[in-house]
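Supplementary Methods, section 5.1.

A reviewer requested that the exact input to the structure prediction be made available. We therefore reproduce it here, unchanged from the version used in the analyses.
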Amino acid sequence: IIDRENNDENIKKMEEIYLEKFETMKGLSPKIIMIEMSRSFDIQFREQMWVRLLRDSKNDLKYTIISVLKDVKDLKVLDEVLNSAETTDSLLRRIALETWYSGLMKYDVETIIDYIADKLHFLIRATYELQTDGKLLKQSLSYSDKNAITSPKAYPDFMIRYMTELLGLWDYDPDAYRTLHSIMVPSYFTFENDEGKERPYIIL
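The structure derived from this sequence is encoded token-by-token as follows.
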């Protein structure tokens, strides 16, 4: 029996117990149940316990792990969650994008703009797949310096149409408009590995 007080010593003891039990379990169902049971523990414990298993776990376990990390905001943990979105499993991709997106929403955008600027394509993807109002994307584009934003990438017409509809719902912000177009529209003529520094802008 371990005191539930959230201190480093208790967390370490619980990690050792959980890992020992988890690694000796056979079958998927007992492992999923064990992960689900950890919901009652502090987020610090859940991060330290489960994030390490994300990369090498099968999709069913990844889904369960991410579901118990829904309130996470640590950027390193969010990176691991985002990596799990690179899958053809639509349910896993959605919960990974939802968790990553909701984690970013816990911040003042200005404080994490360097993080977001490098991941604008993921933010565009999450905005579309989750059908959000795009406000986080708009705020991020407004703060992004044009030299710090990610390189352009090819987008299908249906995503460009969706983003165009969002532009019509936003308060007018020329910086956000131009940055979004510089990432999406010129991508028709840009290879993904293009290293060019100049990015053409469409003046709206």
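The first helix runs from residue 8 to 24. These observations are discussed further in the main text.
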